Amino acid sequence: MQRILITALIAVAIGIVLGRTQTSMQTASLPEKFEGARPTKIDFGPEDNVTTAGTPKAEIVGGAEYKFGTMMHGETQSHVFTVRNVGDAPLKLEKSGSTCKCTTGTMDKNLLAPGEETTVTLTWTAQTAMPIYGQSATFTTNDPENTQLKFNVTGMIADSFVIEPSELGFGDIAATQATESSFYVYTYLAGSKVIKNLRWTNASTEHNVELTSEVVPVQEAPDAHHSKALMAHKVNVKILPGMPLGPLSSRIQFETDRGDEVGTLEIAVTGRVTSDISLIGGGSFDAKMSILNLGNVDPKAGASIGIFLSLQGEERNKIVPTLESWEPAESLKVTLGEPRVSASRTLIPIQVEVPKGAPPASYPGSSKDTFGKILITTNHETIKEIPIYVRLVIEE
Fold it and tell me: 47, 60, 331, 340: least CB-packed within 10 angstroms?
């Protein structure tokens, strides 16, 4: 019995020794979890190791974006950003990339003591095909609240000739008065001094427009971002009285002295011609565009919509409207009703009807050539024509 007890005690002792040995082997490579707080060690490389208990903080003086303005294709410009360490520990900067190989960045120094500044120079070469660009370069930092600094450069790359504005909008134009506006053509091509052959592309209204151009000093032109242009032309556009009522839509085209090298340039022109003579209607009539929307019509049911021709002014009683034509003539019936006279104006009903049994028609208005059209003429001195554009599809 005594021998058995001694043997058991020896086994227990051996087990305790083996257990302590195994535990020591398992935990030998683990860090101590409950040590006291240690100062932060920032690893900047073999020459920049710094031990500190503070926190670095990066600030970009004056902002992180710079507008280069307008540049010629292939031109190179640079801008210097300033970075300040407003924290209480050394700040480390390191470039991590850019959105385009055309953007390069260099630093004056990459380790800043508290309160110290450095400069970051971004150089941009305008090589993109896009007229408006925005590129950036990114730097990583050891600022725990701002681990990346992103510097941005933006601007425009000029074509050989740039038109400003890109579209000429007149807004509402009085049909009985002359209206003028202008646009500018900026030349960035050395040796090119001429724009020529100005023309209004809408043949039906070209007799109501006068186009002229003149050279003006670049510094006197209104678009400051084109201050580097070599020349500026001001194109004057005069809309004469008598332009037909309704939407104004055309283009102005012109050439330069570089021929096919540049080709034909153009600008869109929009507006709306109004006067004492106007058209008014309900939800199916767009007065701004002078479009009457009959929509899809079942020929078995037919359809009918009424709008009004409004006459105002002292001479309104002398105006005589005449229903000149309408299209599709075989599918529509259009009539002018008896005038309704008030103290301030005269309303003349215009009834537009799709009779029952009307033949099929397709005028969906998906483009300017796919509308039907009602034309009213008058004896007015300047308002000779009043067009109404019709959107209509007749099918069973």
Answer: 47
C-alpha 315/C-alpha 322 separation (Å) is 17
Q: Is 244 helix (H, G, I), strand (E, B) or coil?
A: coil
Query: Cβ–Cβ contacts within 10 Å for residue 15, how many?
Result: 10
For the chain, state the CA radius of gyration: 39
At 122 the pLDDT is 82
Q: How far apart are CA 295 and CA 367, in angstroms?
A: 15
DSSP states along 76-95: EEEEEEEEEE-SSS-EEEEE
In angstroms, rounded to a whole number, what is the distance separating the alpha carbons of residues 221 and 39?
61
Asked which of 90-104, 191-205, 299-313 is least confident by mean pLDDT, the reply is 90-104
Amino acid at 262: V
Confidence class for position 291, pLDDT limits 50, 70, 90: very high
| Beta bridge mates, 323 | 376
The single-letter code of the amino acid at 330 is E
pTM, whole model, 2 decimals?
0.48
CA-based nearest residue to 87, from 115, 60, 118:
115
Half-sphere exposure of 193 (CA within 13 A, CB side): 2
CA-to-CA distance for 26 and 32, rounded, in angstroms? 13
β 231-239/246-256 pair status: unpaired
